[in-house]
Amino acid sequence: MTQKLNNRYQVIRSLSSGGFGETFLAADAYMPSNKPCVIKQLKPISNDTQTYQLVRERFQREAAILEKLSGLSCQIPRLYAYFSESGKFFLVEEWVEGKTIADVVQQLGPLKQGAVIQILKSLLQILEQVHSQGIIHRDIKPENIILRQQDCQPVLIDFGAVKETMKLQAHTQSSAHSIVIGTPGFISLEQAAGYPVFATDLYQLGLTAIYILTGKMPPQLDRNSLTGEFRWRSH
After folding, report:
1. Using H for helix, E for strand and C for coil, what is the string for the chain?
2. pLDDT number for residue 63
3. CA 224 to CA 152: how far, in whole Å?
4. Are 137 and 155 in contact (CB under 8 A)?
5. Residue 28 a catalytic site member
């Protein structure tokens, strides 16, 4: 992609791609410094006019939620803009330079207990602020936590609300509560049933902490057949 999006954002490279869209690193041509930013392109999968309008309205609401969240903490990427172009939807967010928890553990191995405790304390403070707004992240995992390069503070990215906007296309408004957002292995029972609660985020954060300590993802861990509890301490 070589053209400017919204006649402003020059795409530099693709960061990731999935079924519902693609994420790019871009430069803001309206800023003297060509300030880097992240652009998330959400691709509608339906040509139905009514469904498209529903997704557009939901996208606008979710963008407003992300804007609200971005003012809560410097450890949540700021939302700079949102727009639609050529039938696609775009979010422009703050670029956080650093490595994800997943990358750090893969490169360095499991971290020490003290480092994990500090990461947990910091993330719990972020979640307290997010939950105070009645918002559930729903997709906390090692790939969605960036250790910021400048200060090594964890930054929480990729709120599930945006994913819900696109998955909503396959549902009516009356069944929107049944949309499941999350990553296999990190999904709690109530989340799998389509009813996430605040504790859903804590469950996912706990599994993320286990990964940082052991280098093991949930599917790699044994579970107690009676209680479902993960057996991880031996690792």
Report:
1. CCCEECCCEEEEEEEEEECCEEEEEEEECCCCCCCEEEEEEECCCCCCHHHHHHHHHHHHHHHHHHHHHHCCCCCCCCEEEEEEECCEEEEEEECCCEEEHHHHHHHHCCCCHHHHHHHHHHHHHHHHHHHHCCCCCCCCCHHHEEEECCCCCEEECCCHHHHHHHHHHHCCHHHHHHCCCCCCCCCCHHHHCCCCCHHHHHHHHHHHHHHHHHCCCHHHCEECCCCCCEECCCC
2. 83
3. 35
4. no
5. no
Q: Which of 28, 48, 139, 151 is catalytic?
A: 139
230, 213 contact by CB (below 8 A): no
pLDDT along the chain (235 residues), means of 10: 84 82 91 94 72 76 82 91 88 94 97 97 95 90 96 89 51 49 85 89 96 96 91 93
80's tokens: 């700079």
From CA 204, how far away is CA 142, in angstroms rounded?
10
